[in-house]
């Protein structure tokens, strides 16, 4: 890298010196880029992987129609209901579910016992209330309200008072119900939950095959219990947009240092050009040593270099191959809020050793060019605790 910078400085000087023949003095201008900043909310953002947090539900229970029934002392009858469903939690807070239900409903009306069978399907949007306050994928009990819209088909209906073509009495119908409900979820194991839920569905006036009044709405109450089988695990991935802000600021500072060195060299060359001398005097640019910008970050209590961080080890290896005279110090750190000072000293040593092994064994760097230092948690590079789980490189 140093050779490339010096070559750039030399090219800059050559252009400035050649300008002395063609024109008068010319100032060196270094343009600075304008960087726009976008404020982001610091905090953990959760999302589910493609194969995570799917679920299947199987349940059974009862249903009760709330429809026109007269005389007023007529009875509504409770019947059995069966349901299945599947869905996905796409965050710790929200899920979608497609469910199906099959049941019969019975009621008294017009001094006769009436009945029908129906099948419906619903698309539900579900909300985990407790996770909205604190995300916990191992919570034993959760309250999950939901809303839904669906399609219902009723058939084998006892004739009512709705006539269709030719005066025939209607015996089947399609409906588009909307519903609200509440689910109580109990965790039994890593993959199985027990649930109990109630759903209140709202239909048009022909759900029971009786049209009564001008503004009547038929309703149906379903209560069901069963089991949820979780597929692909319950964990969620997360990211914090502010995690690397300190590291980016450090790189920006190093870029500004290089820009200042370049401006100093340019000013020196401009001053040399301004002098009226019979001979061209070569001005030697200062030897600017580029700092090593690569670092290797680690997860908590780990000395393993992740696949994401391997690119930084690779960059140091390539730099050392391009600069065969340079030696590098590998400094390992640990954060002070985790573990004891003695344990963290060993952990930082293992982190430095892991990077050392990759450089020597995988990239063929001469061990004599590397020095390892374990800083433990007594020395903290960053004010933010988690950023100190790191290995930093410097020239020896």
What does this structure look like?
By secondary structure, the chain is of the alpha+beta class. The strands form 3 sheets. It has an 8-stranded antiparallel β-barrel with strand order 2-4-5-6-7-9-10-11. A 4-stranded mixed sheet has the order 13-16-14-15, covered by helices on one side. The N terminus is likely disordered. The chain starts with a helix and ends with a strand. The protein is built from 4 helices and 16 strands.
Task: Describe this structure in a few short sentences.
The chain contains 4 helices and 16 strands. It has helices at 2-22, 245-274, 310-322, 341-362, and strands at 45-47, 54-66, 76-77, 79-89, 94-109, 112-127, 141-155, 173-175, 178-187, 192-203, 218-231, 237-239, 295-297, 328-333, 370-376, 390-395.
Blueprint of the fold:
Elements (H helix, E strand, L loop, with lengths): L1 H21 L22 E3 L6 E13 L9 E2 L1 E11 L4 E16 L2 E16 L13 E15 L17 E3 L2 E10 L4 E12 L14 E14 L5 E3 L5 H30 L20 E3 L12 H13 L5 E6 L7 H22 L7 E7 L13 E6 L1
Parallel strand pairs: 14-15
Antiparallel strand pairs: 1-12, 2-4, 2-11, 3-5, 4-5, 5-6, 6-7, 7-8, 7-9, 9-10, 10-11, 13-16, 14-16
Helix pairs in contact: 1-2
């Amino acid at each position: 890298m140093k050779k490339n910078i010096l070559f750039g400085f030399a090219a800059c000087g050559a252009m400035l010196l050649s300008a002395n023949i063609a024109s008068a003095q010319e100032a060196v201008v270094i343009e600075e880029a304008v960087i726009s900043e976008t404020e982001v909310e610091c905090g953990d953002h959760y999302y589910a992987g493609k194969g995570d947090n799917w679920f299947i539900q199987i349940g059974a229970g009862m249903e009760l129609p709330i429809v026109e029934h007269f005389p007023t002392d007529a009875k509504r009858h409770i019947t059995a209901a069966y349901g299945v469903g599947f869905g996905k939690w796409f965050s710790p807070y929200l899920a979608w579910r497609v469910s199906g239900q099959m049941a019969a409903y019975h009621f008294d009306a017009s001094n006769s016992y009436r009945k029908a069978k129906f099948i419906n399907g619903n698309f539900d949007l579900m909300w985990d209330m407790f996770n909205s306050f604190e995300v916990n994928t191992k919570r034993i009990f959760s309250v999950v309200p939901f809303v839904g819209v669906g399609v219902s088909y009723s058939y084998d209906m006892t004739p009512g008072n709705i006539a269709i073509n030719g005066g025939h009495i209607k015996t089947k119908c399609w409906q588009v119900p909307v519903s609200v409900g509440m689910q109580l979820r109990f965790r039994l194991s890593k993959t199985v939950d027990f649930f109990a839920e109630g759903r209140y569905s709202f239909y048009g006036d022909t759900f029971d095959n009786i049209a009564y009044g001008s503004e009547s709405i038929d309703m149906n109450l379903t209560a069901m219990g069963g089991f949820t089988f979780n597929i692909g695990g319950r964990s969620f991935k997360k990211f914090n947009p502010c995690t690397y802000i300190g590291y980016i600021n450090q790189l920006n500072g190093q870029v500004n240092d290089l820009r200042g060195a370049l401006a100093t060299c340019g000013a020196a060359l401009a001053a040399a050009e301004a002098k009226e001398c019979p001979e061209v005097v070569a001005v030697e640019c200062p030897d600017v040593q580029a700092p090593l910008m690569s670092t290797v970050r680690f997860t908590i209590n780990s000395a393993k270099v992740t696949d994401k961080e391997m690119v930084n080890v690779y960059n140091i290896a390539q730099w050392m191959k391009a600069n065969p005279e340079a030696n590098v110090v590998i400094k390992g750190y640990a954060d002070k809020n985790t573990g004891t000072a003695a344990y963290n000293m060993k952990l930082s040593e293992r982190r430095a050793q892991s990077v050392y092994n990759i450089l020597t064994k995988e990239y063929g760097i001469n061990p004599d060019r590397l020095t390892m230092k374990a800083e433990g948690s007594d020395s903290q590079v960053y004010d933010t605790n988690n950023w100190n789980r790191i290995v930093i490189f410097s020239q020896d």
